[in-house]
Amino acid sequence: MSELRYHPFLGTWVITATHRQERTFHPPDDFCPLCPTRPFGFPTEIPEPDYDIAVFENRFPSLTTPSAEPAIEGLPLCPVLSSQGVCEVICYTSDHRATFADLSLSQVRKLTRVWRERFIDLSVRPGIEYVFVFENKGREIGVTLSHPHGQIYAFPFVPPVPARMLDQERRHFEATGRAMTDDWLNQELVSGSRVVVAGETFAAVVPFFARYPFEVHIVGRMGRRSLGEMEPSELDDLAEMLLDTVRRYDRLFGFSMPYIMAMFQSPVAGDHPYTRFRVEFYPPFRTADKLKYLAGVESAMGTFINDTLPEDSAKRLREA
Amino acid sequence: MSELRYHPFLGTWVITATHRQERTFHPPDDFCPLCPTRPFGFPTEIPEPDYDIAVFENRFPSLTTPSAEPAIEGLPLCPVLSSQGVCEVICYTSDHRATFADLSLSQVRKLTRVWRERFIDLSVRPGIEYVFVFENKGREIGVTLSHPHGQIYAFPFVPPVPARMLDQERRHFEATGRAMTDDWLNQELVSGSRVVVAGETFAAVVPFFARYPFEVHIVGRMGRRSLGEMEPSELDDLAEMLLDTVRRYDRLFGFSMPYIMAMFQSPVAGDHPYTRFRVEFYPPFRTADKLKYLAGVESAMGTFINDTLPEDSAKRLREA
Description:
3-stranded antiparallel beta sheet, 22% strand, alpha+beta, 6 helices, HIT family, subunit A, homodimer, 320 residues
């Protein structure tokens, strides 16, 4: 039902997962599969009357372990692999109506511990090469369940975007002996015009090279490559910076802002002293009522057109 | 108002073009800027009472020549360039209500000559490295003007996706002495299960490695690297295959199918014997009423999840 097919022109794997067509699609609130199972109620994914934070395997996974042998043979140019890996769902709270921005700081701090624990646990599983923690939020992003939740994909390969970044970071390290993220953050802090918040351990910045209108990167000052390396106090500070960012987004246009939140971390295998943990946010709005679409130039060419000025976006987020 | 900013982590240029925020957004039909200028009517982009096919520079361009000096200084890690290049609009017909699929075969044949002429003309302009002919169709793709039209971007660099493909194609050529596209097409034709139409000069195929649910590639059998190399009879056959494809899309779900149509061609400079002209279609629907979104896994990781089986999609398009 699911397999990896090789795209020889891009040199990447595509996940073919046809059973996902049947996944739950905007159910009524009473039938939310991410809510607790109420007494005498509809049986949800969580067979408990209540929960704090819940983690479980996605019922419609793109990647699974064990995974079935591929049902199709490849072409000579296009090998096929079984789609081994793990897809997990993390419910942030049992409160169906909440969003990340509504969580208490102590709840987000707990959540950082859950992410860290899942990162470490998935990292040591055989065949896993990259652990991706993320949240898709809002209908505009394509989310089919509104209950506040994030996801984790444990990939059997390093996906093309982090692979590309690691390559760029490695080259910079070989040339300078320093991590590109550290250098870039210092340059942003000196310039100042795109900094949203500069905390002691983390900073939130609209990068000079933002591809999305209100793109924000949360970058650490401690040189950590993954959640696995962070001290409790750093996780606490990360929680605060994440919460501050999503709350600014909500104040920006006066509605609950959809976004993609993506955590970039070191691959599981090998030593990568040149890379750094980073959280990137991609909200889809370019104004309060206009969406940024990824059309031909972005989708086919890979070149982004940003209709906003990163310096203006940072100012608006600072003031929000 | 527009500049190229370097993304050091991806090694790519981002176009920052803030004046595009003001571009015309879903105007009423009577105020369509791509219609002919009716006597005593609103002055459109085309100051003529009628036209057959019209080409002009985009009034809200991402790339322009001459282009102003960048208004901002870069960071050490993030240089800035002026956004030199050309953005053109091609109106397929003066009929506001038509779509590509409604055009006559003779009109599409004319259109292939216009594309070819624009490709050749833009290719020899100083500073241009890649000419991208494409169409964004439909509100779901983010199109803000419904009048049937395509676009051309003449880039001052080879964009990251074709750059990546050229690299893969070059490696295959060095290893085998053959073009990857020729080998891949032969493998698809032998297999047969993903071929939508096999013509004498072009074939339409849902590729084994399709990333989008009803992705179709139109590939030539004559080894051409660009429109500039094609004979009139080949342009005629291309027109027929394009028209056949978009009409199948419309019949697939019984409505006018939105899509991104993207032409991949040889870069302007240098000799690239290993590459081939190709047209790729990315429709955004995975079923008649469900869209495929590019969420966290696609946008942040670059890994695509296809919820459909390419073999099924090809069968449905063959039968459509």
